[in-house]
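As a warm-up, study this chain.
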Amino acid sequence: MTAGGAGDDLAGRLERLTPAQRALLERRLRQRTSPGPYRPSATQFGIWLFEQLNPGTSTYHNPAAVRLSGPVDEDLLREALQRVQDRHEPLRSRYPADEDGVPHAFVEPPGALRLPWRVEDVTALPDPGQQAARLVAQEAVTPFRLDRGPVWRCLLVRTGPEERVLVTSFHHIVSDGGSLGVLLAELAALYPALAAGRRPLLAVPPQGYFALAAKDAVPAEALEHWLRTLDGAPDRIDLSPLAERSAAAEPPQPPTRGGEPGPAPGPAAGGKWAGRELTLRVPDGPATALEQLCARHGTSLFTGLVAASAATLHRASGQDDLVMTTPVDRRGHEGRALIGCFVNTVVLRLRVGPDDRLDALLERAAGVVADALAHSGLPFSRLVSALPRRGDARSPFGNVAVVHNNAPMDAVSLGGLRLSHHPLPPVEVKHDLALSWNRRRDGLTGRIEYAARFPDAAVERLRGHLRHTVETLAAAPATRVADLPALSEPTR
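Now compare it with the structure written out below.
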């Protein structure tokens, strides 16, 4: 028999295996090629430790919710998600501690762990939309047991004959912002293929998450670089003007352009780190103009958002020396198709003066962002332990975060289903203030998560100023920071 004939015969035999036989084969192969347990990455260890000190918290939950419109085959959707779980080690992992209190990651073989799947039907109840929102909120904060697993869950809520809400709730120890993009891309390949009776064609990742995470070496000079960069830096931005401004003295503003809603309370209102959120929108015209401005300066849209955030925070706090944090995706080329926690936190130290022009601030921010990315290999926990001032347990250095999410929701097609965003309630917050942005076809959408101690009216005004600064940077980049409205002044 020729070599080609042997290969064809093997492929045919594999094709004829039943699902149970295939699962058994994959399990045995996995047991041979992937011994465990594994050592968690530095970021995973930090998240695990936080969870031990704060059991039951939702601070490190990473939920996502989408509306599915059209005829949904729930069994095939479940099968597609099961296959995603079988492809990715972190989704089958758990993190018990040994007798010395050190955590290890244990990974179940593919096919050995049943998908954590639940279906709720609210179609016959009054106001199905409100019932769905309640279920989504509950799902977002339901605790995980990292020592036992599962570390992610799937909830499907039926709200109408051809309307569903799919909620995938991850613990951050096994996911990051890029993981949602991987999940959506795989669903976009798996579900239509299964619906058409075809064998899904997805390349097998060349290596698993834990093997790749173990390769992430830290340059010897990384710590010294960060200590020099942050020498003399404040460990936080003074947000006392927000905390001290009373709601009675500053009544809530009516909805601003774009119909932005008022603050949404977190599901754990009154909890240790209860959070609230506001959303904002920048139309496509200014968003495109900002992208073009950033491109002319040889930098990214994220840098423009960092510069606009810094100018706004300078006006809000009066500080000239600002420290913000941002998560950096360190997947690299090898990890681009993997679900897992590849993120590391880096610090952005940006100086802002009243006479700075916005375009000059953009140039400065570009240098700061580029430097942070070039030195993003040092685990944040190692940096914090070496700093003389550490803030508090929630935000050990830098109480304000700026985030640019780029999961490609707009580009996903799930067979004949239409996908759209379903709003999520804020979970418990990690920072005093977090400014998160998404670029969509119709513009920029932003979300301001903030600690519940800040008056809603003050944060509503901050929202208006942040949007105004973004649009001013896009349209009139020669504007001086001092010519932006002060936080006490209303914006149009």
